[in-house]
tRNA(His) guanylyltransferase (Wallemia hederae), 270 residues
Amino acid sequence: MANSRFGYVREFEDYDRLLPSTFSVVRIDGQSFHRFSDTHQFAKPNDKRALECMNSAAQFVMEEMEDVTLAFGESDEFSFLLRPDTPLYDRRKAKILTKVVSAFTSAFVYNWSRYLNIPLAYPPVFDGRVVTYPLPKHVRDYFAWRQVDTHINNLYNTSFWAIVQQGGKTEREAHKILQGTVSAQKHDILYKDYGINYNTLDEMYKKGSVLVRDPPPLPEVPKDGAYKEKKRIEKLRKDGIDGTRGSVQILHVDIIKDDFWNQRPWLLAQ
Ligand code: GTP
Ligand code: MG
């Protein structure tokens, strides 16, 4: 950038950086997707095509940004995990956040017609935030929080729309029927009243979408102490396995229990 007497205005720029050696999660969310999904006649409660279009946009983000090692999506939101020592954009928050939101949004629009055969009625908008998490435990709990949310919402929404669509009740009546019910009662309503076995529904609806890169999961190792675990991660890194290379896989698996993380120790390596 050429120097001029106007260059001093750069001094006003605010360089807000991610904390060093800290995990970061960018979460994006569709703006007013209640309206967007109605306008585009999304199937209720889950529109497979729309969810796959979301996944394709997240895959593009990961292909654009190799330091994103994991993504998790449900409904109109996606979370992206950045490895703790990413040097991306000199760790400037605004640049990282805007790149994720912009890459995701444009890929969503770009891929739309591959998944949905209804024309886009207006441009979808996504907002985003970035949060730093100092410990692997925070990262685990963050993603568990999102997947629990997926489960709770999906069970509620599946029951709600069964009562409305199959049961012929109004939305107000459906709310009332479900008010105060626990999970087992919703399973019962679905099975007994509507013949729906919740457990057999599409895994993408129940668990959300999990994007990681090859290599395929390693065999699970017994818990062998912090030192050996550290050595194992060092070796993986030396072998070039740090979650930043390889093709992106789209999975619908449990990320609350230990297995997923034990099979991919690089995700939580510090
Ligand atoms: P803001 O995010 O606050 O702007 O509002 P929002 O309308 O986007 O609501 P929110 O993000 O809380 O929830 C997402 C909404 O998107 C859901 O409530 C649904 O209405 C809609 N949605 C997301 N995925 C689907 C889907 O697969 N099918 C249908 N029918 N609707 C969906
Ligand atoms: Mg939204």
Summary: The mean pLDDT is 93. Residues 136-166 form the longest helix (31 residues).
